[in-house]
Design a protein that fits this description.
six-stranded antiparallel sheet; 32% strand; 15% helix; disordered N terminus; 10 strands; single chain; four-stranded mixed sheet
Length: 183
């Protein structure tokens, strides 16, 4: 009987550990994403940028890309839109998201503004184009990066693409209606 209890205890602990692999916020965000939206997930073989670049210690982000162009993404891949008053539909502010990009070829001392182009397209329907701010420099920690603020005009499944010096990187996010999600 003791062996049986031990087996049950091990099984219970294993099931608990499996259920705790995603935080409650991640699970809640993932439930809102329709199966038809192929949001970007952490790659099987993660990219590792140069040592001066670090992710948040909470483990809710991952690296995506190559040495030529990379970004850090939240594991939830859910962004929230903000409502726009009539007549301000083409305003970029307030932003939907700040997108940070990096490259071993980027030298903030010699290149301003960065020659980064960020575009986006809705995958699950028609929509006005993604609006972006002019790229600028950012210093998240000891390393330089490129920053582009974006405004996603409609909720839905969006592919965001960055292009820099011949390198191209895309990822997919789910954008929730106004006031119904967290970035």
């Amino acid at each position: 009987m003791t062996v049986w209890r031990l087996v049950l205890l091990i099984l219970f602990v294993a099931l608990q550990a499996m259920g705790q692999q995603n935080s409650p916020q991640e699970l809640s965000a993932q439930r809102r994403i329709p199966a038809s939206c192929p949001v970007t997930v952490p790659p099987a073989e993660p990219f590792t940028p140069p040592s001066q670049y670090h992710l948040d210690e909470n483990g809710n982000s991952f690296w995506l890309g190559t040495a030529k162009l990379w970004t850090a993404l939240p594991k939830s891949q859910v962004w929230a839109t903000g409502p726009r008053p009539p007549g301000h539909e083409q305003d970029v502010q307030p932003l939907t998201a700040k997108t940070f990009w990096a490259s071993v070829e980027f030298n903030y001392r010699e290149e301003y503004p960065p020659k980064l182009k960020v575009t986006g397209r809705r995958l699950d329907g028609s929509a006005p184009p993604l609006l972006t701010m002019t790229p600028t420099n950012a210093f998240p920690g000891p390393a330089a990066a490129m920053l582009v603020g974006v405004y996603v005009p409609t909720p839905g499944c969006w592919e965001i693409t960055g292009e820099y010096k011949g390198a191209k990187l895309s990822y997919v996010v789910w954008v929730t209606p106004p006031n119904h999600g967290n970035q």
